[in-house]
Amino acid sequence: KTKIPSIQDFEIIKPISRGAFGKVYLARKKTTGDLYAIKILKKVDMVRKNMVNHVLAERRVLSLSRTPFVVKLYYAFQSQDYLYLVMEYLIGGDLSSLLQNFERFEEEMARMYTAEVVLALEYLHNNGITHRDLKPDNMLITSEGHIKLTDFGLSRISIPEKSSLTFVKEENDGNDKKSFTKNNGKSSTKSLTDNKSTTNTASKLLKKQNRQSSKALLGTPDYLAPELLLGIGHTTAVDWWSLGVCLFEFLVGYPPFNDDTPQTIFKNILNHAIQWPPEGFLSAEAKDLISKLLNQDPEKRPSLSEIKAHPFFKDIDWEHIRQQPAPFVPNPEDEQDTSYF
């Protein structure tokens, strides 16, 4: 009989990232030396945040995942105070960090990532699972540079009262990004000053810190479909909305409803106030696909087959996408490198 592993079987090496629902650590299994990512969740927090179902959902999804598009779950076990999910470690980091470094992706790159996410969602939806928390942070990069989804069923966004506002949603970022459209399409960090390199580095560092701190809190409503925000019941169409938000952000460098506080983002989503870049910045195909995905009416968003047949994806070979060379291949220092996160 195989013994159920415990946390004692693993040596924790270092933290990888913090989500709204616990920390993820890089760990080595003592008997084999294999590396894993372990998500550690405090039970008392989970009961308090009414999250037990979410984690069970995540466990169910991950154990279903015999697919290259979803992060594998190897073990799930608990101690008196904690729940542990032992998952594969993907060394390439997440698309949120990659986007931070690139500022925005060329259309080819955005197309490939978006197509891989479409296939991952196809798999989930066929298995009766809605992701509900699709965003660049939850798209991880394999050592070959392809995409896998993580963090299912964890999306419970509560919009706090002003008094308890502990969000740090990239405030400088929000302003920087908005001025993008007012600067005739020049990215504002570039036009801030002649002393470019130091400012850029400083602003990148600041953005990274802010992004980190916003990751650690309960998330931002940036990627959530209006029907999820309104709590009026939802279908798998919420994931297609989020995909539209991600595609916009990949190509433009900021999410379409971005603002300084969760409240204003919330309002922008419900008012459908999309901050389009200057005319001609996006290709006609990209703009058309984004507009269709960001339809306020979930019934009117395109279906999977319509998405795959959209002209934006005309050069995508859906059957063999994993065999195509990836747009960015991580080049880590060693197998324990976590710098891409």
From TrEMBL:
<dbReference type="InterPro" id="IPR000961">
    <property type="entry name" value="AGC-kinase_C"/>
</dbReference>
<keyword id="KW-0862">Zinc</keyword>
<keyword id="KW-0418">Kinase</keyword>
<dbReference type="InterPro" id="IPR008271">
    <property type="entry name" value="Ser/Thr_kinase_AS"/>
</dbReference>
<feature type="domain" description="Protein kinase">
    <location>
        <begin position="10"/>
        <end position="313"/>
    </location>
</feature>
<keyword id="KW-0597">Phosphoprotein</keyword>
<dbReference type="GO" id="GO:0035556">
    <property type="term" value="P:intracellular signal transduction"/>
</dbReference>
<dbReference type="Pfam" id="PF00069">
    <property type="entry name" value="Pkinase"/>
</dbReference>
<dbReference type="GO" id="GO:0008270">
    <property type="term" value="F:zinc ion binding"/>
</dbReference>
<feature type="domain" description="AGC-kinase C-terminal">
    <location>
        <begin position="314"/>
        <end position="341"/>
    </location>
</feature>
<dbReference type="InterPro" id="IPR050236">
    <property type="entry name" value="Ser_Thr_kinase_AGC"/>
</dbReference>
<dbReference type="InterPro" id="IPR011009">
    <property type="entry name" value="Kinase-like_dom_sf"/>
</dbReference>
<keyword id="KW-0547">Nucleotide-binding</keyword>
<dbReference type="InterPro" id="IPR000719">
    <property type="entry name" value="Prot_kinase_dom"/>
</dbReference>
<keyword id="KW-0067">ATP-binding</keyword>
<protein>
    <recommendedName>
        <fullName>non-specific serine/threonine protein kinase</fullName>
        <ecNumber>2.7.11.1</ecNumber>
    </recommendedName>
</protein>
<keyword id="KW-0863">Zinc-finger</keyword>
<dbReference type="GO" id="GO:0005634">
    <property type="term" value="C:nucleus"/>
</dbReference>
<dbReference type="GO" id="GO:0004674">
    <property type="term" value="F:protein serine/threonine kinase activity"/>
</dbReference>
<keyword id="KW-0479">Metal-binding</keyword>
<feature type="region of interest" description="Disordered">
    <location>
        <begin position="170"/>
        <end position="199"/>
    </location>
</feature>
<keyword id="KW-0808">Transferase</keyword>
<feature type="compositionally biased region" description="Basic and acidic residues">
    <location>
        <begin position="170"/>
        <end position="179"/>
    </location>
</feature>
<feature type="compositionally biased region" description="Polar residues">
    <location>
        <begin position="181"/>
        <end position="199"/>
    </location>
</feature>
<dbReference type="GO" id="GO:0005524">
    <property type="term" value="F:ATP binding"/>
</dbReference>
<keyword id="KW-0723">Serine/threonine-protein kinase</keyword>
